[in-house]
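hi!! sorry for the late reply, been swamped w classes. u asked for the two structures so here they r. pasted raw, havent cleaned anything up. first the sequence of the first protein and right below it the tokens
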Amino acid sequence: MSRTGKKTAAWAAILGVVFGCGPIACSGERAVLTGADVLLRDGWERATGLPPMPLGVVTNHTGRLRDGTHLVDALLDAGCEVRAIFSPEHGFEGSAAEGARIYSAGETYRGVPIHSLYGVTTRPDASQLDGLGALLFDIQDVGARFYTYVSTMARTMEAAAVRGLAYVVLDRPNPLGGTVVEGPVLDPALASFVGLFPLPIRHGFTVAEYASWIIGDTLLADAEDLELHLVLMDGWERRMSFEESGVPWIRPSPNMPEPATARVYPGTCLVEGTNLSEGRGTERPFELVGAPWAEAERTAGWLNDLQLPGVRFRPARFTPGLPGSAVEVKWKGEECRGIEIEVTDRETFRSVVTGVAVVSAFRHLYPDLFRWRAAHFDRLAGVSWLREGIDAGLSPGDLEERWREATAQWREEAMACWLYP
């Protein structure tokens, strides 16, 4: 970790708000408070170390307090001056389809203009930042490199640095916990909005830790000029599942209905880079994988024979495309046959190697029908050798072994930015 990274981590300890073991709920279980809850509990000045100033809020429908109040409502009701809202992929309401471009000209919320950062541009322009003193980020991430909310955070951090604005991150739980790091480290030559920086697919960071890391490793333009403030959670620990945190789940995007979806997503999102359905347009997105030309029992049997830890594969039939939905998905309206993923042990389950195994099964059982969307698969994987290795017949274990050393080294360095026990 660079000297800048150590300084940022130290700032986080000072500016982030952490109190002992956290509040205790009536049931005797720990109740985690998000950074947004801490901010409203303690007030702007104490929580951030900043004086009152005009704010731009980078958020969407997930930016809510424990009682369901939206952060923007809470800030306005507390007398804060919110002058702009910036929304990521899926829009401020979180209802737009994956990859859909959003144009928000003229839209407002309680009189505050909403600016889409997933339409014409992915970063605010100068006119949208005029008169602001700080940008405030509060969005629920899912802990996978290719989920674009952290890319939106990075782009708005860059904009804040150029304009000399303070940047405040309100932290939230990583639904995958914070101990396991998995998957190839991204090759910078494959950087894109679904992976800006060299980190593994499953990185183990909360959004505050992610912000600290990209500043500490000077991965942003003008990073040295950014005044970063982190408002930490109260009571979260790295080994917690999302369910154990007690934080209400609000689906971060239309195809992320449950914490269980997030648990498999870092692996089965790779299916997007093929002609298989990843279960979009069903009630079990990313837990179902198949195609009209596959055989369910054969595929499930091949995968179960691998005896991967913490997971079982069930034969499945499903039809992508929920009734009445206009959203286009692969194999919409056609019955697909394949597998449903059942996580049997959260502690031992490894999502990325499981996703690699699933893609490998279809690639080798149905070689004349399986097709790559090679460029997209490589962007998601962060490397080209993973696809090439699957084509060459390497086992999921062999492929995992190839990324293991670099990923373990990355984890050791990244631990300098960990902010929770």
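now the second protein. again sequence first, tokens right under
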Amino acid sequence: MEMDVRVLLSDFERLYQKNVSRIEVSLKRVTDALHCRDVDRVPVLQMSQTILYPRHEIFFSREKNLCMQLANINHTLAHNTDYVPYLDPFEGVTVLSEAFGCSVEVPEYGDPWIREPLIRNKPEDVYRLEKPRLDNEVYRRILETLRYFEQETGYLVPVGATDPQGPLDVASLIWNNQDFIEACVLHKREVHHLLNLVTEAFIEFYSMQYDNLRNPAYPVHSFPLVGSGDGISVSDDEAVLLSPQLYEEFGLPYLNRISEAFGGLYYHCCGDYGFLIDRILQIKGLRALNGHMSPHEFKPEYIQRTIDRRVGIFVGISDLEIGWEGDEWSSDEVIDLYEQYYLPSALRASGGRGIVLVGYGGYFGYMDVQGEIKDDSLLVGIGGHVIHRNPLLNVVVEDKNRNFERVLALSEKYLSPLKS
């Protein structure tokens, strides 16, 4: 299905005007919640998305990238939610490692990946690396994408920096992952040299992006929009492969530098990082965590420890894609667990403070797809997940609104005894 930016932007302006009061209230509610201030109720981000093109095509066309995001925003604004629109010019997790010289490939229906790391079993090769020049081709490409997003939308929609992967993540793409982890024990000096280079490049690259944006979005990627204009979101997925002691040595110092440079840090890590959470909560200027609850990921018992440190949390649950792998979980069982265990546990642990919830379907929410959907259709959504079996496919707006109100009602039910 082809779309035009002008048509999508016209729809956006209509929906925005219809929701302008709600959006203003939601922006304050979400910002206050993630900063652990009092809120009138727990914010709930209920999302929707669609598919306009095969996944890989958005990485070769700024127009398709923008059209997909505008279409998703419009689908979301059509139903009840605390979502506040912004544009996330996602170019993949490989951007900064590509600037260092890594060769990148975009597979069909997938996201960019590194074909060949620059370092394998020769740790001394780190000393041959140079920090990317400020005028390198990758930086210029990203800045042009940011300009395109802003100019095409008339600066109406806030635009964020592209996928900020933290120093550990970038280093593990530049240096073959297994060898990198081993080097954290056997070749510490070389690892610190690389992490220092990557951190300096990160600060330069993302400072350039925000310096060039006229209507910047904060903190972006893995978090909802906040109205405080502080901090940057950082993905730190490599952290779960390190021990607490190694993380304290190779993770914290570099994230502290980034947090200081950007006025705060919003933290994302995939998987179950509970064994690191006491270290993560030591990050200077830490604003909030992003956690995904499932049997194999973020546990409800981590929530109170986080909020007790006055660090907010954006917490969600998916339908089936992540953390619920295997035939033992049906979609109905997952939704029941969400309503009967995960949601109540999160609310009780937080007491309704310092937390932003994701509604049904997880961070990607409902999937609205036009046309006939066959069993063998390959529909790939955000993050590269195959979604044609999504139990929340093509849900009508009225049912989306009822589900949103159900989450609010459950919130009130489980928080009322705590308030009294």
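hope this helps!! also noticed smth abt the second:
The longest helix spans residues 5-34.
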